[in-house]
Amino acid sequence: MVTVSEYLGYFKDRRLINVFAFGIASGFPWILIGSVMSAWLKDEGLSRSMIGLFGIVFVCYSVNFLWSPLVDRVKLPLLHKLLGQRRSWILLSQVFILLATLWLSQVDIQNQLQTVALCCFVIALAGATQDIAIDAFRIDTLNEHETHKTTAAATMATSGWWTGYALLGAVPFYMADLPDWQWTHVYFVLALIMLALMLGVFFAKEPDSNREYVHKALEAEFIQTDASFLKRIGAWLWVTIAEPFKAFFNRNGVKTALALLAFIFLFKIGEAFLGRMSIVFYKEIGFSNSQIATYSKLGTGLITIVFAFLGSLFNSRYGIVKGLFISGIAMAASNLMFSVIAMVGPKESLYAMAILVDGFTQAWSLVAMVAFISMLCDRAFSATHYALLASLGNLGRTFLSGSSGYLIDYLNGNWALFFLLTALMVIPSLIFLFLIRKRLMALEASFHSKQ
């Protein structure tokens, strides 16, 4: 069992600092199309149902596995020679996020709602593509004998994501309460922040990989004696699209693979319902933009980062599966805290307590899930495998949470009952996790035996 001092020593690795920086860039687009957009739409008088529907753009994060094989294999002209496979895709995605954010800073939302929706879609699509490359970068950057650092890398990714989403996410809410500041002005500042985040690409080192060697060997096996043009195209498509999925099921077995996919799909549905409508809830219950910035952004971000390190130490010493159980129970407790606020009203002490529990939940669950998914990936197809697994986690969250506005409207604005239902949504995943716990622990033991 790793000691605390040994584990803390992992964070001296410069590569993990790069993982943290890319984590910030990964979390930032969620501000642009998530909490800030929800607040802007609410201030413009749009209905809860319409605000909930805007969350459908997050479906890009749920289906990004569809184009993840291209991120694994397609070499971008010019950028690939300059930056390498992973960093070139990260930078290209960030350029599109920057341009769409600048566009949002120029729109009249009342008369250009379709344009706003288009910009949100572009940001979501580019952000989802950026995540494919960033997650693959994190997995590739550690050598195969360094599996003991996987949880530490997951911690840095989680801490970075919450720095980008929550700490930087507090900035626009403070600005929105300033005299004469409009949301368009806020988006212009957010575009400048995005520009600064793009510099991280140039400070990171492209990880070494034998990915191309494996791909070429698989293509040669497919072609065998027929090297015609059509056969070569077929080989490239097979290795790019089909081989990653074949490798995943061969590696885990069909039954276990399906069980893993089902668990990942179910795990965070309840949390997603809460997250999508949380800003609307805060504003309806009576909290100001500044209070939202202080508690839901700064508070959640700092608490999450602290608990991310504590959670990663726990996962490293006692196992990722146990960490997933703890985070699932905490998710239900967090949602119940918001139910209490709905009954009591805008009481800051309760808000702070709910944020404390929610921050613990976010940290513990993300670190455990990121490390868990990472250990399931084949390095030859790291972008595709991680995107497939992570997107499944987003799939249920995106499709179902998009109806969260309709649910609260159906409940006639009964927020207490709404949050109670979201707490109950956690139960099926915990039951499923219990049923497959032995197989998951075996997978975890096998993974760590490689170090």
From TrEMBL:
Keywords: Membrane, Transmembrane, Transmembrane helix, Transport. It comes from the Bacteria. It is found in: Membrane. Its main location: membrane. InterPro entries: AmpG_permease/AT-1, MFS, MFS_trans_sf. It is a multi-pass membrane protein. The chain crosses the membrane at residues 16-40, 46-67, 88-107, 113-133, 153-174, 186-204, 256-275, 295-314, 323-344, 350-374, 386-408, 414-436. Signal peptide: none annotated. NCBIfam families: 2A0125. This is MFS transporter. It comes from Pseudoalteromonas spongiae. The lineage of its organism: Bacteria, Pseudomonadati, Pseudomonadota, Gammaproteobacteria, Alteromonadales.
